[in-house]
Prior knowledge:
about 325 residues; alpha+beta; Beta-Lactamase; Heat Shock Protein 90; five-stranded mixed β-sheet; rod-shaped
Amino acid sequence: MGDPVDWPVELKTAVRICLTSKFATMVHWGPKHYTFYNDAYAARLGQKHPGHLGQPAYDWWSEMWDQLEPFFQKVLAGDSYYTENARYTPNRDGTAKDAFFTHTHSPIWDDGGVVRGIYLTVVETTAELEAKARSKLLMDELKHRMKNTLAVVQAIVHQSARRAESKEDVAAIISGQITALGRAHDLLTSSAYVDAPLGDIVRSSLDTDGPYAERLYIEGPEIALNARAAIALTMLLHELKTNALKYGALANDKGRVIVSWRVADGALEFFWKERGGPAVAPPSREGFGTRLMKGLSGDLGGSPQVQYLSEGATFILRSRLEKIQMV
């Protein structure tokens, strides 16, 4: 390029405008497209800055030159080029990643009407488009979750009416189930995503800060459940706790409940064990609670094992991870 004092006036003018612009701007000059850019552009270049300053454009963007060269040729032929939210794969920090840009490229002519360079202005829109995508995902999830919630509420009312022996029982059962459902949604909406940590679900459902805290033993690795699984597990834990309070380990002063889980061979293995409570025996017939637990277990992608042992009731469920985690 030689001494800047001897540069063509068109290049000097373009570089001055580039350096003083508040937008991210760049100038390519000559047959090899030697590159100049301002501070606003530098902030978007990652590890490419400052080593590529003054270098040919191909050296800059060799990883996506096939995307850039067609409109470079168009501009060099005298046409301007403009595009919105164009997708590219720049390697700015050691890895090529998709990014989106709105940009315009304009020819720089000399006095003889020959295109000598390219002036470009760029606005990166990656963050904006990702935010819109997340917003759409959350709105779609909200619609889906509302439909599921209404279906769950309808089932609660229907089954509670069949289960109850009096109007007071109906109100109490529905209230308990709706409260459990509300806890599940609290956990889901407290996350920036659309899943919920299993440990939080267990602790919230069993009220580990409540009066039975010292009789609850909870252990397992952290794992996130999708919305459907989170709601099903919350309702299931509510039913297990209700049974423990009425007939099981929490129905006396010394019983305890051990809840644990582990991940093995692509599956979640979940255990509920009651110890130290009143003597238990298998029910003479399958009641609402048992049917509910089987149905909820189906939403979790597994079939439960319920054992009425002399030392206390045990509930075991094995669920495939692809059924209960985010896709």
